[in-house]
Amino acid sequence: MRFIDEVEITTISGKGGKGCASFRREVFVPFGGPDGGDGGKGGDVVLYATSRRNTLEHLRGQKLYQATPGGPGQGAGRTGADGEDLVIELPVGTVVFDAETGQLLADLAEDERRVILCHGGQGGRGNTRFKTSTNRAPTRYDPGGPAQARDVRLELRLLADVGLLGFPNAGKSTLISAVSNARPRVADYPFTTLVPNLGVVSFGWEGSFVIADIPGLIEGASEGQGLGLRFLRHVERCTFFLHLVSCMDYGEDVPDPVRRYEIINNELRVFSPELAQRPQIVVLTKVDTLDEEAIEALRARFKEEAGVEVRAISAPLHQGTTELMQECWRRLTELRATLAEVDSPLR
Questions:
Q1: Where do the domains of the chain lie, and which CATH numbers do they carry?
Q2: Edge-to-edge strand list for the sheet holding 45-50
Q3: For 297-345, how does the pLDDT look when each residue is reduced to its tens digit (9 = 90+)?
Q4: What is the DSSP string of 59-113?
Q5: Can you tell me the distance from the alpha carbon of 321 to that of 286, in angstroms, rounded to the nearest whole number?
Q6: Is 0.70 topped by the overall pTM?
Q7: Is 138 helix (H, G, I), strand (E, B) or coil?
Q8: For residues 209 and 89, what is the distance between their CA atoms, to the nearest angstrom?
Q9: What phi, psi does 237 have (nearest 5°)?
Q10: Which stretch, 142-151, 231-240, 308-317, has highest mean pLDDT?
């Protein structure tokens, strides 16, 4: 299945059924009067968030989504059938915008949340509704309420507790495969990861958290360079980040580790100043390629030049990964408690 995280669709609710103009025709009822029934209500277009979906791929091949109209009223006071609602299933984390104005219409951040996007038209009144003491044989009826139509843009923003940041080939996919149930493609070349991957890190009876492997970012990502602009929005819902920096030297065209760390943070700052303030744990990866003296020298450089403490791991050897996940769990528990107190949208 392809990972599709943005689509535009047109949604139309059902038109209300028209009312009926009818009169009783029984043999032994000389003054029968009107008996036209009301039309049925048109179907709504409903957006439904479900954890069963993890991509917008199922919406890719269809542009128009329309609910059924209400049935017309009938004689003998019979009301027309209501139109069926059209329920569109979307992954949890989908954000809905008006395609023309860009207005935010809905944020489906919770599982099983339902939002009526287009209301169906009301059924028209039959001529029975217009009977009065002075007008005992009305022929008037209502045609039924109009349908609503909306062009919308759907954006999927992954919901994860911890997001992995870093340059291409920083070791994000290797780490998530080592500590969670995710099995992303791992290879020794840049941009191996082309789509985000989610994994669950379990702590048994204590609980679990979701970790997201975001495709590698490069300088200029906030301006559309590489894969960054398309996937930067997926980190917006992460509670905090693991910022992975590879110890390996990939040549003259790739900045040194400290510079790589600063570049990624600058891209976050340009994309969203609030995002740049999100908590981070900085992690040196692939430390099995260096000796202890070189690792300590890198730690000292980060402390002196960037003002941050760094952790060191080797995901393939599971060196330091258990301790790192335990620290993530402690940090996440503390942040959840803080966010609950301030009622933050990151909850």
A1: 1-156 (2.70.210.12), 162-342 (3.40.50.300)
A2: 86-91, 45-50, 114-118
A3: 888 988 888 888 899 998 888 899 999 999 988 888 887 777 555 554 4
A4: GTT--EEEPPPPPPPBTTTBPPPPPPPEEEEEETTEEEEETTT--EEEEE-STT-
A5: 12
A6: no
A7: coil
A8: 24
A9: -95, 0
A10: 142-151
Contact 59, 9 (CB under 8 A): yes
CB 320 within 8 A of CB 313: yes
CA 81 to chain centre: 35
Residue 285 per-residue DSSP state: E
Return the percentage of the chain with pLDDT > 90, whole number: 31
Q: Tell me the two tokens of residue 19.
A: 């009312």
Residue carrying the six token digits 């989504």: 65
Which pLDDT band holds residue 12 (cuts at 50, 70, 90)? Answer: very high
Positive or negative, the CA dihedral 129, 135, 138, 144 is negative
Question: Using one digit for the tens of pLDDT, what is the confidence trace for 214-235?
Answer: 775 554 444 444 444 456 666 7
Tokens of 90: 């979307």
Strands 149-156 and 104-108: unpaired
| Residue at token pair 């009067």 | 33
At residue 260, what are phi and psi to the nearest 5 degrees? -60, -45
Residue for token pair 């908590």: 279
